[in-house]
Amino acid sequence: MSFFGLDCVKKKEKETERKIRANDREHNLSFKYATNAIKTSKYNVLTFLPLNLFEQFQRIANAYFLCLLVLQVIPAISSLSWFTTVVPLALVLSITAVKDAIDDLADLLLLSTLCLSSSHPLSPSLAVSFTLALCFCLSLCCPLGEVCCEPPNNRLDRFVGTLVWRGQKHPLDNHCVLLRGCTLRNTDWCFGLVLFAGPETKLMQNCGKSSFKRTSIDRLMNVLVLFIFGFLVFMCIILAVGHGIWEHYEGTKVMAFVPQQNEDTAFSSFLTFWSYIIILNTVVPISLYVSMEVIRLGNSYYINWDRLMFHTGSGTAAEARTTTLNEELGQIRYVFSDKTGTLTQNIMCFHKCSINGKAYEDSVIDMMMVDFSFNSLADPRFQFYDNNLLEAVKLETLEVHSFFRLLAICHTVMAEEKNNDLVYQAQSPDEGALVTAARNFGFVFRLRTPESVCVVEMGVPRTYELLAILDFNNVRKRMSVIVRSPEGKLALYCKGADTIIYKRLHDRAEESIFAGEGLRTLVLAYKDLDEEYFSEWKQRHHQASTALEGREDKLNQLYEEIEKDLLLIGATAIEDKLQDGVSQTIEQLAKADIKIWVLTGDKQETAENIGYSCNLLREEMDDIFIVAADSPEEVRQELRCVEWCEAYERDVQVTERWHGTEIKGLLILGIIFAYALEGSMELEFLRTACMCKTVICCRVTPMQKAQVVELVKKYKQAVTLAIGDGANDVSMIKAAHIGVGISGQEGMQAVLSSDFSFAQFRYLQRLLLVHGRWSYLRMCKFLRYFFYKNFTFTFVHFWFAFFCGFSAQTVYDETFIALYNLMYTALPVLGMGLFDQDVSDGWSLEYPQLYEPGQRSLYFSKGAFIKCALHSCYSSLVLFFVPYAAVRDSVSTDGHDIADHQSFALLTQTCLTVTVCVQLGLDLSYWTAVNHLFVWGSLGMYFLVTFTMQSDGLHRLYASSFPFVGTARNSLDQVTVWLTVLLTAVLCVLPVVVHRFLFMQLNPTINDKVRLKVHQMKAQPPPPRRRARIRRSSTRRSGYAFSHAYGYGDLVTSKRFLRRPVPSRSAGSTPAGRSAAFRPAGRSAGYSPSGQEQNPKQATEPTELQRYRAVHDATFCRQGVAPE
Question: Which residues act catalytically here (predicted)?
Fold first, then answer.
């Protein structure tokens, strides 16, 4: 910024590289790097008031009332007191400001607690290369040294830097840094050098900016308020012109009665214009937004109080963390979901295995759980249900022992003793489940050193010399270890993807695996090695591992050379257990025409298997398109290939008139997003994705998740929802219209950044199909009715202007004007917005198609608003001219004339109050005791207040304030008055009744059909749904989904990890036929990521619909009615 040619603010130069010296604070401070302070709140003490007011006045209605307030302080044009506007406006602004401050402060305190608590990492289940960073710590103890590295960025998959220490340069890559959320294993501490802090960390770089979210109804309201204001100006111009014309032709005739202070007709018309602006401002009353906030708050509490969304296992209730987005839940078109911890429990279970062609399953019906009491080192949480496998182990079947020996040796798991318990620290839950399975069946992994692996085999401790680890990576899709047994035999043990291992088998045989069942499968194989060959191979391996150029290629060639002619042992099937009700929830949301995209950082095979498990992908799908190109041209070509195939098959379906529909799935690898999200290709990517029924994006970064959400928001103009449970989902949650956090095992960061939170994915269907749909329906009916009653109220003033000489006189009593929106019609419309429902929650879940009108904005839109305005115009004509005709030239029963202004005003406002209450009764679908109290109580309050305000006593006390003395008593005892009230009410609602009757008969909506069925069923609970049994075909596809990460093999053999001595302890098992002299002591805790029992046979919690039916079935049974 420049002022008189001088630079007042020095612009920070863009950082190209970062230099940090260890233990040199003065040097590091000279660069003015960011501190560790992180600001996640929107406000502070100084900025709260201006920023909050700025946000609130972005609502055009608030700005409109501010301008109206300015007009009301001008005595020449105001016929109403200024406090009638300033009091409600100040009340609305204050309530909203307090609510915003509480929401912002709560987030700040919880985040501060989270940052200080080391026991709540952001992603405790993720490994080093997958977790988000709060700060980077260099895992080197260097008293003097300098690091030169890349500047702060949001790339999680790369890090480039150089360490200069004692005159030597050491390269630094992504494996040399620790990211927040990683777990230190076999050590309680480590030295580190902080590279990035505060807002420059990759967590904050990936979190994105906090935006002020508004609903589509809020945005539509801004447009409508502008339209209403324009229409208001148009009406006032007409009335001002009419006033000028009347003054010119008729004004001189009333000079004797109304002395004119200013003879200028134009100026008088100008003042009349602003007077009518004030009088007709009720087309958008300030109470509208107060009522909207109250309704939103009430619907938020319904979510918090819903016991069917309470998770008993964790004691977690659903929570609406914001009160401004409820109705948006009823318009969701796209759901973007994380996978691990969101769809799955992130708990792996050893489900099945196949050894030497024989399958062993733990899901065999009527089988008893395997008794592992023979093995004192068994994990008590592990359960298996096929006793044939244990019998094979006890019979010392060679293939079975080789199978479990491989599982106990070929891995990168760390074992440690805690409180006399054996605990496994596994890099991935898959490995933990496999090693735990081997442990329970008698092959217990006990200890690891850089040179050896100690295993207790059927009670006998054995130490294998670890000669090499052929590490896993995404290209190899396998890992191998080369060990020397205590007898001196060399062997290579290998596990990996079926398609990879089968190519390297000696006999090219294939084992029966379980990929078609959506399980995470691995194939196991081994190979005996010659000592002389291995010595020569080991020497070449050392040379390749120290090569400066082409190191990876040379190592891969050596791995390919030795990993061939393998002998097949068997296959494993790991179940990444889905959360309860995930498949049913996805099925329900699909019926509601909600598209679900899965955005996950996991690999392709894992994402594909989960897609099949939760029925996002189905075996009957003809094609699963996989887009995994490496260049922009190839990405564009593959996307266009998918589009061409879809378009061709769509044409074939039309020409051949197929009755079925082709369902396609699209699997996208994260590497293509570097090109697909560019401006030149993003539309092509979006068009391709939207042509498919299911979209799964794997290997995506947190920022790419947010970019996908923003892409759909930008071009599809659809309401989006993002749901996740970890810190890597925060940016996606913030980017979507609605963010939902799941309080799972990966900390509370997602919950703290979300708009709604609960404990299980299955609660999403109740949140959307019940609470969301009800909230949207209630808000739309509230707005339609609110505009109807206020437009009708205001238009009567417009018609009256043509009969009062355009003098800006009000047609109603001033007391009625002040209390119309505050007392007479406020509670009935609030009751509608809080309690109305077209069908019950059970029927809402039974018919997800009821959700579709909200997606298409059928209940409230510009068209619906115009219809409401036209209906109000018609009603106002009836409400003005019918009473006008009734009182004109008429007399009361005692012969007195009742055609005075006060009597006409009373009759008109009575007809208006009764008519709007009758109209509300027609709009209400669900009458409760509260609704009855509000409707009849408001009518009673109107008559009570009217008789009180027009009584003789108040007139004697304040004659000028209560001029309508005795009008109610004299008018409402006339039969003609009540007949007029009845006639106007009938004429106003008759078109509505006829319109609804004809449409229900000729073109009924889904709501009409369901409500008719509910009425025919006499409000019985919905019948149980017959769910088709899903049978998976035996279509072969790779089920490899081993969630391993590259680099752990080098870590295990590098001698860099710290070892703890294992206390001397008897360990082992006593198989059948073996001496019982060996008796180990103690019990083991074993591997469990959650610390809870893994019981695949335990009863799952009932779904929401099952709970509903259980309660209602019991009720009907007590009443003697058998539910269908």
Answer: 338 (4-aspartylphosphate intermediate)
